[in-house]
Write a structure and sequence with these properties.
With 384 residues, the chain is mainly alpha-helical. The protein is 61% helix and 0% strand. It is elongated. It starts with a helix and ends in a 14-residue tail after the last helix. The relative contact order is 0.06.
């Protein structure tokens, strides 16, 4: 645990006018402390150190600024420190201003910090308000995200998870789903973005969250957006289908090449399935998904999928598509009021199912570990 004396000593070195070698050692020390839970806890309780780190992100020494940014990335990964960073340190205006600079070297670290801070619902609200009221606005964040060459020095991939986190909020979803802004249509191609699973997953998470607003389902599935092929294509492989099945699919899903690969990331595959499942919550949505022959893609995907938790979501979706329509008054599954006894029974079933999934995952992991390997495993490189 950091003593008061140690904190004051560090604070004395964490200033812009401190001699460079001493300042560099101090920022290295702080960065090292952020690598442990105890270190983050101690630093998170000292607002002056957090403010000093933010101030030193504009140091003329690239090494010092880099250490400070990576320390803030690590600190922002701890939900217990979010309030201090957002409200006491007020780092949002500084981060957003630097993010807008197309020449800024540390914009990727800023995206990571914003993504971390927006994970929890309460500070997500603070981040969204800062973007809208003190920063560029969500419209410009989307513009930056969709402009691959906005900042040629960095990738900005973590703007994807930021958008996904922000769409926890109804007001952020309302912006993304604004029929006059054409935001959803700009995001759709990134479901197939090969260069980054972070960016791809962020977009899929955003689309999944937007599908919770059932009043937009008809528009999302209609010709103006046509979201379904973009959700199904990553789940499709080079499957051999008969002519009738092939012709019943949307054009983008017909006659795929023999080297067509399915989405590699199981978390992204799961979110894609969850998005389609949400679209099937309404009678209109189910009708459209069925008419576009989604079942065929999901049937083949189910044969291929090995991850138990992903396959469980796929099975539930298939059951929805092959089942009879709910009785009158229960057409919208997102609005159905479930009696307490039935809800309790379903919860117990879900818990049993989750235990079974965990067991299957353990068995799958053991089988992979015991399988043959070609060569040794390379250690992962840690960025600093």
């Amino acid at each position: 645990m950091l003593s008061e004396g140690r904190i004051q000593e560090l604070l004395g070195f964490l200033t812009l006018d401190t001699r460079l070698d001493v300042k560099g050692q101090a920022t290295e020390c702080v960065l090292g402390l952020t690598g442990s839970k105890d270190g983050r806890r101690d630093l998170g309780q000292c607002v002056d150190i957090l403010r000093s780190l933010l101030a030193l992100t504009k140091d003329t020494s690239r090494a010092v600024a880099k250490d400070c940014y990576y320390a803030l990335v690590n600190l922002s990964a701890d939900a217990a420190i979010h309030r201090a960073l957002v409200q006491d340190v007020r780092l949002m205006p500084v981060l957003l201003a630097n993010l807008l600079d197309p020449e800024y070297d540390f914009a990727d670290q800023i995206c990571s910090i914003l993504s971390n801070l927006s994970r929890e619902a309460d500070t997500c609200v603070d981040v969204f308000r800062a973007i809208q009221n003190e920063g560029p606005g969500l419209a410009e964040i989307v513009d930056i995200f969709c402009s691959d060459s906005y900042n040629k020095k960095v990738d900005l991939h973590y703007l994807g998870p930021l958008l996904s986190n922000l769409t926890q909020l109804p007001e952020a979803r309302k912006f993304i789903l604004d029929k006059d802004r054409c935001v959803v249509q700009r995001l759709l191609p990134y479901t197939q973005y090969e260069d980054s699973s972070v960016r791809r997953g962020g977009v899929v998470g955003t689309l999944r969250n937007c599908c919770f607003d059932h009043s937009y389902h008809e528009w999302l599935l209609g010709n103006k957006v046509d979201i379904l092929p973009f959700l199904l294509l990553p789940l499709a492989g080079p499957d051999e289908l008969n002519e009738d099945e092939m012709e019943g699919l949307p054009e983008d899903l017909q006659y795929l090449p023999e080297d067509k690969q399915r989405e590699k990331d199981p978390d992204i595959r799961k979110m894609l399935l969850e998005a389609i499942n949400l679209l099937c919550a309404t009678r209109t949505g189910r009708k459209t998904v069925k008419e576009k022959n989604a079942y065929v893609i999901l049937r083949e995907f189910h044969k291929w999928e090995k991850e138990p938790d992903v396959d469980a979501v796929c099975q539930k979706l298939i059951e929805v598509l092959i089942s009879d329509e709910p009785e009158a008054g229960m057409e919208n599954l997102l609005e159905v009021a479930i009696p307490q006894d039935i809800e309790r029974k379903l919860r117990l079933q879900d818990e049993d199912e989750q235990r079974q999934i965990e067991k299957e995952k353990e068995e799958l992991l053991k089988s992979r570990e015991s399988g043959p390997r070609a060569g040794g495993d390379s250690p992962a490189e840690l960025e600093r």
